Amino acid sequence: MAQTGRPLSPHLQVYKWQVQMVTSILHRATGIALAAGSLLILWGLIALASGQDAFDSFRACAGSVIGLIVLIGWTWAFFFHLCNGIRHLVQDGGAGYAIHQFVRSSWMSIGLSLVLTVLVWAYVLVGGAA
Amino acid sequence: MSKDLRNPLARARGLGSAKEGVGHWWNQRVTAFGLVFLTLYFLVTVLGLIHSDYATARAVVAKPWNAVLLVALIVTMFWHAVLGLQVVIEDYVHTRWLEVLSLVLIKFIAVLGTLAGVLAVLRVALGS
Description:
The structure holds two protein chains of two kinds. By secondary structure, chain A is mostly helical. Chain A has a single domain (about 20-125), classed as Fumarate reductase/succinate dehydrogenase, transmembrane subunit (3 helical TM bundles of succinate and fumarate reductases, Up-down Bundle), CATH 1.20.1300.10. Chain A is built from four helices and no strands. Chain A has helices at about 20-50, 50-65, 65-90, 100-125. In chain A, helix 2 (about 50-65) crosses helix 3. Chain A is extended. Chain B contains five helices and no strands. The N and C termini of chain B lie far apart (about 65 Å). Chain B is elongated, with a radius of gyration of 20 Å. Chains A and B meet through helix 1, helix 2, helix 3 and helix 4 of A and helix 2, helix 3, helix 4 and helix 5 of B.
């Protein structure tokens, strides 16, 4: 930060934690994670276009332990950014601005993203031999 | 007389101090709206392919509708990612040259990523 010597406005540490702060921070964090994840989609598509060998090594990486951990984290990041993003679009439309609605929709984003992540991975891991 | 202190021409242009009006904000929302559908389509497609072999995956991507939607996904995804990362960089990188460099860099990466992704889909779709 530029050292101007001017007083700073109060920052995160002076506030009591609220769920809206958590969803706001997570929205940014998951957005950054998903931007990195977009390069993985790119890798998959290029591997598919390159040929059988490249695609096999892509699948081997995706199916490894580290690969699965990344994919599970990525799935949650995607669902959270999706749910919270829809919440933000609704708010941009002018709805849901009462404080209790803010709190409730924040918890809905968190809860729904977790449920959807579990559902997808239940399908992947139970719906056939992984 | 209105209380607006801007001159009438500036008000008519509606571009404000950022020189692009609400362009960034609006593009972020429109791409977000498109990505709601495109990403869910992508997720369903990938889940359908999860236990398929290479030839099947290629055949699915080569179908015209899938190729079109995948290209749309790639373009919209990288576009939305740049708009979001741009705001993060503008908020947190306070060294000017580093900020400008990062902003240019993410745009270069996004454009290269878009071109490479589109080319990959086209190679599969057009079968070369």
